[in-house]
Amino acid sequence: MSKPLRCRIGWHKWVRRFNAEGSRYSQCERCGNDDGRGRPHWGAGPMG
Ligand SMILES: [Zn+2]
After folding, report:
1. Would you list the domain boundaries of the chain?
2. What is the tens place of the pLDDT at every residue in 1-19?
3. Which domain of life is it from (predicted)?
C-alpha cells in the first residue's frame, strides 16, 4: 500500500491527537505519519 500522493509530496493532513501521556501531537489523518513522535507540538501546559 502506497502513501497518498499528497503525503508523498509532503502535504500531510495534520490533525491534533493525544499520546498516552495526554500530550498533544500532530498526526496525518491520511497516512498516519506523526510529527514529533508524541512530543508536544502546540505547547503542552496547564491549559492542556
Ligand atoms: Zn500523510
Report:
1. 5-35
2. 688 999 999 899 999 988 8
3. Bacteria
